[in-house]
């Protein structure tokens, strides 16, 4: 077992409601080749796209798997409650429906999507059929401040301690941490989300517009929920390019057609000094590691 500071962490409630998909006055999205079309996008309840499904090759743009929630409450004219929902929710947190026909049903947090500021949840298929837009869902937010005492140069974020305990992490003899991932992603192709001052909410995108790079790293096989390693990157205190650094993240939304965008990655670990050793494991996906619902 990898040691954590679990006993120091606070578990607190945050809440949101299922959002509606959005459409614009100009509904077309134009890709870097100049082609335009109208694509399903963020928000709502996505019935046929969940954790473990492919993230690429869909007729979609930024589609979020399962259920997307936000908190629309304004505090002193500011969206503070939604910021709290996004900052404190962690992958693996327990989510409970507290209104509507599915009241009492439980799911798990799977990710967070920046820009639109959504928290993403997965529920069993039967529960998805019971949910409606506007239903409220409360989350037991647990994981903010999670640390690995034996690895002080590795920053952990956006992970429930129970999910971290499910991951097959290994300490090496030279003091590094082995982390299973499905893919290695070069930092040079990271796009939207770079430069954010923190990584405790939101994500940043893998650009898939350069076919030789996609083929070299097998990125067209990315799945929603995959753990991936971004090499020569650091997200300890903001998402940047840093030679030798390693970032571990979870793929949270589908591929995109807009320039600078692609499958989104929510950061869960970062080492500016490269103390993380990514190990390729095709099964390193949330679908395999999420704590089972009781």
Can you give a write-up of this model?
It is a single chain. With 294 residues, the chain is mostly beta strands. It folds into two domains: 6-141, Thrombin, subunit H; 155-289, tm1086 (SG structure) domain (tm1086 (SG structure) fold, 3-layer Sandwich). The chain has five helices and 18 strands. The chain has helices spanning 80-88, 125-130, 161-166, 211-217, 286-289, and strands at residues 12-18, 29-30, 36-37, 45-46, 66-70, 94-97, 106-113, 118-122, 136-141, 155-156, 170-171, 177-181, 183-186, 204-205, 227-234, 240-253, 264-271, 276-280. The longest helix is centred in the N-terminal third of the chain and has 9 residues, at 80-88. It is globular, with a radius of gyration of 18 Å.
Helix share, percent: 10-25%
User: How many β-strand stretches?
Assistant: 18
Residues in β-strands, percent: 25-35%
User: Can you give the mean pLDDT?
Assistant: 96
* Integer count of domains: 2
Low-pLDDT segments, ≥5 res: none
Look at the structure and give the CATH class of the largest domain.
Answer: Mainly Beta
Radius of gyration: 18 Å
User: What kind of assembly state do the chains in view correspond to?
Assistant: single chain
CATH architecture of the largest domain, please?
Answer: Beta Barrel
The dominant shape is globular
Q: What string, H for helix and E for strand, traces the elements in order?
A: EEEEEHEEEHEEHEEEEHEEEEH
Spatial strand sequence of the major β-sheet: 1-5-8-7-6-9
Pfam family, one: DUF4438_C
Protein name: DUF4438 domain-containing protein
Domain DUF4438: 28-164, 167-288
InterPro entries: DUF4438_C, DUF4438_N, TM_1086_sf, TM_1086_SG_dom
């Amino acid at each position: 077992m990898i040691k954590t500071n679990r006993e120091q962490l606070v578990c607190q409630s945050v809440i949101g409601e299922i959002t509606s998909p959005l459409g614009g006055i100009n509904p077309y999205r134009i890709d870097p080749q100049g082609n335009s079309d109208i694509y399903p996008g963020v928000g709502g309840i996505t019935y046929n796209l969940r954790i473990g499904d492919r993230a690429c090759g869909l007729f979609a743009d930024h589609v979020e798997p399962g259920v997307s929630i936000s908190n629309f409450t304004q505090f002193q004219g500011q969206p503070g409650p939604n910021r709290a929902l996004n900052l404190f929710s962690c992958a693996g947190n327990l989510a409970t429906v507290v209104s509507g026909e599915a009241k009492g049903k439980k799911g798990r947090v799977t990710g967070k999507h920046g820009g639109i500021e959504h928290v993403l949840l997965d529920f069993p298929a039967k529960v998805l059929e019971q949910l409606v837009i506007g239903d409220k869902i409360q989350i037991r937010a647990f994981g903010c401040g999670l640390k690995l005492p034996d690895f002080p140069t590795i920053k952990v974020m956006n992970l429930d301690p129970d999910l971290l305990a499910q991951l097959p992490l290994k300490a090496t003899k030279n003091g590094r941490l082995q982390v299973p991932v499905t893919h290695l992603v070069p930092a040079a192709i990271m796009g939207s989300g770079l430069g954010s001052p923190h990584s405790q909410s939101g994500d940043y995108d893998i650009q898939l517009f350069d076919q030789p790079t996609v083929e070299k790293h097998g990125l067209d096989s990315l799945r929603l929920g995959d753990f991936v390693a971004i090499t020569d990157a650091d997200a300890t205190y903001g998402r940047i390019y840093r030679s030798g650094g390693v970032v571990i993240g979870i793929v949270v939304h589908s591929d995109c057609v807009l320039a600078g965008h692609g499958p989104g990655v929510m950061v869960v670990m970062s080492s500016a000094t490269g103390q993380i050793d990514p190990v390729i494991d095709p099964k390193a996906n949330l679908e395999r590691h999420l704590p089972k619902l009781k």
